[in-house]
Amino acid sequence: MARSRFRADRGLTLRMGGVSLGLGALYVAFGAVLISFSGSAVVGLVITVALAWGQWYFSDKLALKSMGAKVVSAEQAPELHAMIDRLCVMADMPKPTVAVAVTDMPNAFATGRTPRHSAVCVTTGIMQRLDADELEGVLAHELSHVANRDVSVMTVASSLGLLAGFITRWGLYLGGGGNNRDNRNGNGVPFIVVFLVSMVVYFVSFLLTRALSRYRELSADRSGAYLTGRPSKLASALVKISGDMSRIPNEDLRGAQALSAFFFAPAINRASVNAVMATHPPLEQRLAQLAKVGAELSDPI
């Protein structure tokens, strides 16, 4: 965990370590299976590792681009910069790049590979709906993701998911299209094994990243609330945003689905989502936790 004034969360640290080890073991095993059945897959492995590394290294720029966000200077967004400056001083952490996405979807997210190479983005929709104290609570939440480095783990996890997809398609191409003669001779079994193993790897990695995603949101709520000392404002922001997100049309949310796990509130407008599939914990759970923090800090919600 980065050394900052955000409260340490041992549970988050343990989960990040467990997810990292689990994902690493999964993909090493998958790579070993793939290579053992097709030496030519090494080329595909090198290419896909390079692509995954590029996604991790340029994660902040790629995420901002996918949202159509623009980096803004202190002159262009003085109030937003002033809030982030104040919170970074309070948290004793480097200031991230500040960006704004022009969209009615009320949301925010943080991304980046390290605290010194990170970005925090807010939408015009969230700035229009929240007052200054509520927006500060959301920004504290997002900055805690950066300080705790869980955004880095999620970025790596997302990269590995992309890597698995590329490797699977490469393996199927080699097995189904590139070696049809071998398949006719009954040698297509290894590629069926590769496909089945890839499905297991993807499913397990999906569960691991979803579990981390839900816990890290609770951790960021706690950390942000303790930093500002006003959990009631963060709770108010959650209620407003969750209510408004449910009214955003599906077609407007579709382009943001890839970043849903990184958002302050999930980019989805269905009334309920299976707990295993959800990227965020239920709103009621988040509010209940903030109420406990508020009782501790004498800031009733």
Please explain how this structure is put together:
By secondary structure, this protein is α+β, with helices and mostly antiparallel strands. It has one domain (10-297). 66% of the residues lie in helices and 7% in strands. It has twelve helices and four strands; from the N terminus they run αααβαβββαααααααα. The chain has a four-stranded mixed β-sheet with strand order 1-2-4-3, with helices on both faces. Strand 3 and strand 4 form a beta hairpin. It starts with 9 loop residues before the first helix and ends with a helix. The model is unreliable at 177-187 (pLDDT under 50).
Please name the defining characteristics of this protein:
301 residues, alpha+beta, four-stranded mixed beta sheet, 66% helix, globular
Protein topology:
Elements: H1 10-37, H2 41-57, H3 59-66, E1 70-71, H4 78-91, E2 97-101, E3 108-114, E4 117-123, H5 124-129, H6 132-148, H7 150-178, H8 180-184, H9 189-228, H10 231-245, H11 250-254, H12 283-297
Parallel strand pairs: 2-4
Antiparallel strand pairs: 1-2, 3-4
Brief summary:
The protein is an alpha+beta fold and 301 residues long.
- Give me the strand/helix succession: HHHEHEEEHHHHHHHH
Q: Termini distance?
A: 29 Å
By secondary-structure content and strand pairing, the structural class works out as alpha+beta
Strand content: 5-15%
Low-confidence parts:
177-187
Can you give the helix content as a percent range?
55-70%
